[in-house]
Automatic annotation (TrEMBL):
Its main location: membrane. The gene is LOC107759567. Keywords: Membrane, Transmembrane, Transmembrane helix. Pfam families: CER1-like_C, FA_hydroxylase. It comes from the Eukaryota. InterPro entries: CER1-like_C (IPR021940), Fatty_acid_hydroxylase (IPR006694), Sterol_Desaturase_Related (IPR050307). GO terms for biological process: lipid biosynthetic process. Belongs to the sterol desaturase family. GO terms for molecular function: iron ion binding; oxidoreductase activity. It is found in: Membrane. One of its GO terms (cellular component) is membrane. This is Very-long-chain aldehyde decarbonylase CER1.
């Protein structure tokens, strides 16, 4: 009862905030309807080949350094530009991953509203500004003789850059920023940045091309002055560029991380360094907190938001979020780390697939494998909100292949059991087991943990009932016969029983599978079970992920392959149709959806994950694991009542677009 009252209070408060949020979002979008000149980046038409604009300069720098016979042409400054650009990419990505992890966890989060796919798509070109800066660095080096053969360190240059940033750069940026909020410039340029009310680190660099030109001119003041006065150094340049990236990312990360004691030790620091909550108010309140990194000009010109300190303290004191439902998944392949929400945002926002450039990233892939091996603990991947339910997804740091290694089973079971016990201690209501975390050979569909811990309050759900319901309702209407092929499981037995009881003939092509299925069926249902040696008997096949290419080739042309397993079979036919693994389209009110669940299209959720949500919504008091199965019709009706929609071939195509 207390739980329901808490949710009701939170829902009322959330409704008020949503009204303000969507009103502001509507305003920002309406003002962004007049793009000005130089809005698009010049290399947009190149798509993923945009990096080629740097190729001539990179090639020339490498050639002159390693191939030139003239020692005067071998300049470390010229060749170090590329590593500097790459370090900026890595720096930004670290902030993206950290921010997404911390906001999913919930502690110190500033703004609660969700991030959706449209924001991820809009911010997917965050690296354009690095390309632009790279071009300027290379061209500036070639044009300015003073930029050649810079020393590693010069104290006077560092002081000059610092003073010029505090003075002219911060002052000019403040007034430029205020000008950009004038309706004329805002509607043509700056509204693009403010479309992201809930910010991520890379939101900081999402601006039209023309804006980036103006920002670069500002940041070039200290660098150009130091160069022309002969006081520049490699350290000064690198440190200043890193400082800009660091402060930009920090100010947009949506979680507060600056501790109080810093301002207590040196109180004037509040005029020289902003905090994430400080700049967050600029994105939610619109006409306050204009300063770049140093709030002193907001104090001077009275544009400081009066709630800045209150929000700062409130964000620092905020504890980690307690979810109502937890979904426990795991990594699939070594490259899947990039498709996680904590990985590469643009890849995570699309269905998982292999990319040709992954082989270039093998050092990072190897490093991630080592980290997951050493870390050895579940980690939070994502948070969502479904009506009144707070949802979280946790991941086991193990890959799919490890689940089939006998010597890894004990370790994996220990990790899963620890996650269940942690969920129980935190008061989480339901925990659903995703992918192979419910493998029968591993833990008998989760029954192992219930047997070991009979006192568990958290309900453990393997989602088999909904998976069966989804598969059965994916079979085309009017079908009288299906082929059931693949290693038998709890889901397969239940599908066969339901179909046979419904009058649909189930055909198996293997003697052993036929015998095992028959033992699970009552005499009446067993009359609908058929053993056949012909592969042309039906064009509807219910299959597991281990279906071989040879067997697929034997299926009739136009066959529909409907998987009942967690993983899809490898496609071997172009003249057949391959359905998704058991999944459904989520309702629009599922919030904070900005990544795809493995290979599923956008806003499509696996049946095993949905099952946990339904369990909590319906208030079911039993575990669903081991041999336990819920009424299939009851579970299916509950999914439809709560807004989930069946996934069809047409809806899959639409979701991918």
């Amino acid at each position: 009862m207390q739980w329901k009252q808490r949710l009701l209070r939170e829902d009322r408060g959330r409704t008020k905030l949503q009204g303000l949020y969507f009103a502001r979002k509507k305003l920002y979008k309406s003002m962004a309807s007049k793009p000005g000149i130089l809005t698009e980046w010049p290399w947009t038409f190149l798509g993923n080949f945009k990096y080629l604009v740097l190729a001539p300069f990179v090639g020339h720098s490498i050639y002159t350094y390693f191939m030139s016979k003239d020692e005067s042409q071998r300049d470390i400054v010229y060749i170090i530009i590329l590593p500097l650009l790459l370090s900026r990419v890595i720096h930004n990505q670290i902030w993206i991953s950290l921010s997404r992890y911390r906001t999913a966890k919930g502690n110190n989060r500033i703004v609660d509203k969700s991030i959706e796919f449209d924001q991820v798509d809009r911010e997917s070109n965050w690296d354009d500004q690095i390309i632009f800066n790279g071009l300027i660095y290379y061209i500036g080096y070639l044009l300015l003789e003073q930029a050649h053969h810079l020393p590693l360190w010069r104290t006077d240059g560092i002081i000059i850059i610092a003073l010029l940033h505090i003075g002219p750069v911060e002052f000019l940026y403040y007034w430029l920023h205020r000008a950009l909020h004038h309706h004329f410039l805002y509607s043509r340029y700056h509204s693009h940045h403010h479309s992201s009310i809930v910010t991520e680190p890379i939101t900081s660099v999402i601006h039209p091309f023309a804006e980036h030109i103006s920002y670069f001119l500002l940041f070039a003041i200290p660098l150009l002055t130091a160069t022309l006065t002969g006081t520049a150094s490699i350290t000064a340049f690198g440190a200043y560029i890193t400082y800009i990236d660091f402060m930009n990312n920090m100010g947009h990360c949506n979680f507060e991380l600056i501790p109080k004691w810093i301002f207590s030790i040196f109180s004037p620091l509040k005029y020289l360094m902003y905090t994430p909550s400080y700049h967050s108010l600029h994105h939610t309140q619109f006409r306050t907190n204009y300063s770049l990194f140093m709030p002193m000009y907001d104090y001077i010109y009275d544009t400081l938001d009066k709630s800045s300190n209150t929000l700062y303290v409130k964000s620092l004191e905020r504890e980690a979020e307690l979810p109502d439902v937890m979904h426990l998944t795991h990594l699939t392949t070594p490259e899947s780390i990039y498709h996680l929400r904590l990985g590469l945002a643009s890849l995570a926002s699309k269905p998982q697939s292999s990319k040709w450039y992954f082989w270039l990233m093998w050092p990072v892939t190897l490093w991630s494998i080592m980290i997951t091996w050493i870390y050895g603990h579940t980690f939070i991947v994502e948070r969502n909100l479904f009506k009144n339910l707070k949802l979280q997804t946790w991941a086991i740091p193990k890959y799919r292949i490890q689940y089939f290694m006998k010597w890894q089973r004990e370790t994996i079971n220990k990790l899963i059991e620890e996650a269940i016990m942690e969920a129980d201690q935190k008061g989480i209501k339901v925990l659903s087991l995703g992918l192979l975390n419910q493998e029968e050979q591993l833990n008998n569909s989760g029954e192992l943990y219930i047997r070991r811990n009979p006192q568990l309050k958290v309900k453990v759900v393997d989602g088999s009932s909904l998976a069966v319901a989804v598969v059965i309702n994916s079979i085309p209407k009017g079908t009288s016969q299906v082929v059931l092929r693949g290693r038998l499981s709890k889901v397969a037995y239940s599908i066969a029983l339901a179909l046979c009881q419904g009058g649909i003939q189930v055909v198996t092509l293997d003697d052993e599978e036929y015998k095992r299925l028959k033992t699970k069926l009552n005499p009446e249902a067993a009359t609908k079970l058929v053993l056949s040696k012909s592969y042309n008997i039906s064009k509807t096949w219910l299959v597991r992920d281990g279906l071989s290419e040879d067997e697929q080739l034997k299926a009739p042309k136009g066959t529909i392959f409907i998987p009942y397993s967690q993983f899809p079979p490898k496609k071997a036919r172009k003249d057949c149709f391959y359905f998704s693994t058991p999944a459904m389209i989520t309702p629009k009110y599922l919030e904070n959806v900005d990544s795809c669940e493995n290979w599923l299209p956008r806003r499509v959720m696996s049946a095993w994950r949905i099952a946990g949500i339904l369990h909590a919504l319906e208030g079911w008091k039993e575990h669903e694991c081991g041999n336990m199965m819920f009424d299939i019709d009851k579970v299916w009706k509950a999914s439809l009542d709560h807004g989930f929609c069946p996934l069809t071939m047409a809806s899959v195509t639409e979701s991918k677009n």
